[in-house]
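Figure 2 data, in text form.
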Amino acid sequence: MSVNVNITMRSFIFILMSMFLLFSCGQNVEKKKNNEIGEAKENRAKETNEGMRLVTGTGKEFIVQVKSSGASMNDIFVIPKGFENTKDTFKLKDADPVENIFLADLNGDGYDELYVITVAAGSGSYATIYVWSSNKDKSVTPVYVRELPEKEQEEVFKGYMGHDSVYVAGNCLYRKFPVYKEGDASCCPSGGTKTIKYALKKGEASWLLEIEKN
């Protein structure tokens, strides 16, 4: 009888310890997630008289100005400040409305990149990602956002009809969107959601942002 009691007690203690560990891990994951969200908020643009101002972790600045160029279209000006070899302004002509602007260091080199996310007006709401990279704070260059070959593009974006959410977690950029099945109305996607991961990689002449395939 005492043997059975001991086994029962041991089982009970094991269950309690397992529950404690799971709870502790859950708290750590949530804490990490909250830290990432907090960092993302800190790295977002602040409105000034010059435009939207972002300060990198190394003290350099990006000023982003948005000027209307027509119905639901904008010219976007990116003005780097404090970069020794970059004095020019980068211009995006007739771009979609800006949805989000933030800094992130996806390649982990200690220098923040600038991310500008635009979303088309109307029912589609297709997102476009623009990126500028700091080259060790000496200069700034646009990052090429590489598309997949047509066949792979169709497969990866099957059911895509916009309504994207673009965000950073860890060292990757994610695009999340609802999946539409044939016949779905714009308001009512029925295929769940899909998340695509992008990574910043070194190219021959500049950095590339590309989809990471499974």
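Caption note: Residues 1 and 26 are 38 Å apart (CA to CA).
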